[in-house]
Amino acid sequence: MFLAHWITQPPDFDQLLSVNITGLEVTDDKIPQPVEVTFLEKPNGAHERIKPAEKLSGRGHVSGAHRFLDLQVEVLREIYFEEGELGQPPTFDPTQEETASGFGE
Q: Who's near 83: CB < 8 A, 6+ residues apart?
């Protein structure tokens, strides 16, 4: 499964993660509706973003339904990360955080 960071307004960041999620029913014949996951204890900043090997508790909201799920999320890999283009002002040069994460090259 994958998690994508919800971009709100500048400054922000774009991120895609490969994850294992416990608490969400997924089988080969049943693909769930999109689920919005909120991590209440996690600040929304590029430096504080979710990183590989983290294990977090989150609250899932199933799209189109009044259904909430308690989820356990284990981050396997950060597939994509970008913050410079979503900054104020935007930059296309690698940021310090992009370079540290291996995405600034």
A: 11, 12, 13, 14, 46, 95, 97, 98
